[in-house]
């Protein structure tokens, strides 16, 4: 494969992952977590995400009303804890149903 093919693949791979990452973050935040613990939890299930991707995504989801957050001190450090809001729970349910439907259709085609 040439360099052009590799660049194209990487671009398409990132585009494919983008929506999946949103679903993964929402699903992981059914249980309250702070940024680093969320990143570790995602990595443990094979969803790798850079901090430069995760934190802007958390801020965007919170601004959309899908997450609630609060600053707390833990281990003598201030940490911002995130969790799904009620709107986020409803949106996660809808997105998960859409994901399952799309995934089932794609599996038939692939």
From TrEMBL:
Pfam families: PadR (PF03551)
InterPro entries: Metal_resp_DNA-bind_regulator, Tscrpt_reg_PadR_N, WH-like_DNA-bd_sf, WH_DNA-bd_sf
SUPFAM superfamilies found in the cross-reference section: Winged helix' DNA-binding domain
Domain Transcription regulator PadR N-terminal: 23-93
Entry superkingdom: Bacteria
Protein name: Helix-turn-helix transcriptional regulator
